[in-house]
């Protein structure tokens, strides 16, 4: 091809191609729509961008920059076609209105370091992130650029892939299983489609499930995270709450927000929620949906009824993992009958469904929490033994009254007839 040039962008080995290219190469389709004058193709782990003529060189350069930007963002989380389309509309295509020069650079050199402005008011060689850059391109890209906090979390994400046993990072600290029970729980989530984590408070049921969901999203194995729980008050009437629907259900879902914020950071969590990559909703809003390409977590499942659990489990779609967590000893008063109490008897023989039971030895909160859980378990055992003994005593007291001897059961008439017979026998003998 005359006057054609080829640019190659390699997908790093530590990234999943799906996280960069999107499902069925949907991200590349968006690039092709934005830059119809260039040819874009994939060969193994390389993306080739070919300009057809000298006129298309500028578009080829922009396409390469956009693709490298997608690669850079994929270190933080998989990039979907909607995000690419929005980025192209707001950033790359709008940037054509400004005098912006894009230097072709390698990914390791920093994708944002090669973007320099030579327009009025910009310093010579000013970097993309410099304070002197005032173009709309820079301002509109602020939400997609990896900030210093995002860069740190991205580095931790890459480190998590290499560190054995580390699921992800929360506030700079590695999240991993710390007990034998937690290790079994994490392994069950990795090898089963549906996993039930049952155990007392403080055993990490919800936190580890959220960590696995974040890791699955980072690795490109799912496209979204769905977190839900029953909106049931903890044994007390809170009355009507003001505000919108989100305001009303926020108190019930706050523990899930906290865990996500620890692992993703508040700015990234907000972006994900705005783009519906992360969805947090009450259990009642799951009816009628099919959840595909998702990591779905049902928390506080002990407050779900049998019908609600059945409804939730039948939302399972393709390429979806479900985790259900709960504590059978913390059923709130408003729940007539907990579905978690009987679910294991119903599903224990179904393949790809696992039940993991955690106990006081798996509590990883303050040491006092473990002692509290053990004290309650001992008290519940004593109460159960007392109820069984009381039932046996009641049964033994009732048994003599219901099982009378044949002699005691004789009527007065029978006794009188026997007495007359004995008198006649004595008279005849005389």
TrEMBL record:
Annotated PhoH-like protein domain residues: 175-377
The keyword Cytoplasm is assigned to this record: yes
Positions with biased composition (Polar residues): 418-430
GO molecular function, one term: ATP binding
Compositionally biased tracts (Low complexity): 398-417
Family: Belongs to the PhoH family.
Name used for this protein in its record: PhoH-like protein
GO cellular component: cytoplasm
Compartment(s) where it occurs, according to its Swiss-Prot or TrEMBL record: Cytoplasm
The species this protein was found in: Gardnerella vaginalis
Alphabetical keyword list: ATP-binding, Cytoplasm, Nucleotide-binding
Location of region: Disordered: 387-430
């Amino acid at each position: 091809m005359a006057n054609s040039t080829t640019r190659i962008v390699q997908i790093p080995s530590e990234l999943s191609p799906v996280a960069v290219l999107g499902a069925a190469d949907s991200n590349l389709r968006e690039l092709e729509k934005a830059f119809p004058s260039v040819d874009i193709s994939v060969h193994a782990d390389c993306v080739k961008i070919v300009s057809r003529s000298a006129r298309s060189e500028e578009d080829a350069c922009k396409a390469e920059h956009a693709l490298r930007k997608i690669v850079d963002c994929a270190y933080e989380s998989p990039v979907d076609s909607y995000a690419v389309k929005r980025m192209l509309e707001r950033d790359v295509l709008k940037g054509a209105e400004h005098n912006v020069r894009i230097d072709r650079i390698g990914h390791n050199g920093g994708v944002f370091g090669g973007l320099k402005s030579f327009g009025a008011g910009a310093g010579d060689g000013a970097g993309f992130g410099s304070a002197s850059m005032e173009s709309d391109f820079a301002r509109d890209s602020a939400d997609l650029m990896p900030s210093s906090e995002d860069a740190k979390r991205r580095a931790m994400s890459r480190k998590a892939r290499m560190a054995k046993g580390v699921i992800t990072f929360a506030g700079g600290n590695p999240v991993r299983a710390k007990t034998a029970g937690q290790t079994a729980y994490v392994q069950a989530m990795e090898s089963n489609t549906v996993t039930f984590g049952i155990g007392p408070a403080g055993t990490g049921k919800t936190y580890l499930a959220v960590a696995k969901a974040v890791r699955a999203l980072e690795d490109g194995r799912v496209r979204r995270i769905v977190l839900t729980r029953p909106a049931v008050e903890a044994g007390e009437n809170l009355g009507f709450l003001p505000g919108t629907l989100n305001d009303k259900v926020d108190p019930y879902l706050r523990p899930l927000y906290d865990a996500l914020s620890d692992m993703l950071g508040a700015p990234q969590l907000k972006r994900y929620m705005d783009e519906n990559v992360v969805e947090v909703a009450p259990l009642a809003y799951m009816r009628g949906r099919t959840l595909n390409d998702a990591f779905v977590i049902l928390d506080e499942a002990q407050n779900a009824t049998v019908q609600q659990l059945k409804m939730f489990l039948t939302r399972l779609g393709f390429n979806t993992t479900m985790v259900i967590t709960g504590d059978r000893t913390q059923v709130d008063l408003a729940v007539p009958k907990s579905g978690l109490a009987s679910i294991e008897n119903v599903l224990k023989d179904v393949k790809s469904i696992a039940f993991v039971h955690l106990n006081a030895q798996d509590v990883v909160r303050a040491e006092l929490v473990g002692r509290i859980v053990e004290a309650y378990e001992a008290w519940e055992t004593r109460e159960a033994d007392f109820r069984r003994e009381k039932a046996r005593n009641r049964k033994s007291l009732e048994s003599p009254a219901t099982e009378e001897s044949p002699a005691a059961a004789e009527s007065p008439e029978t006794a009188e007839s026997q007495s007359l017979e004995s008198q006649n026998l004595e008279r005849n003998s005389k």
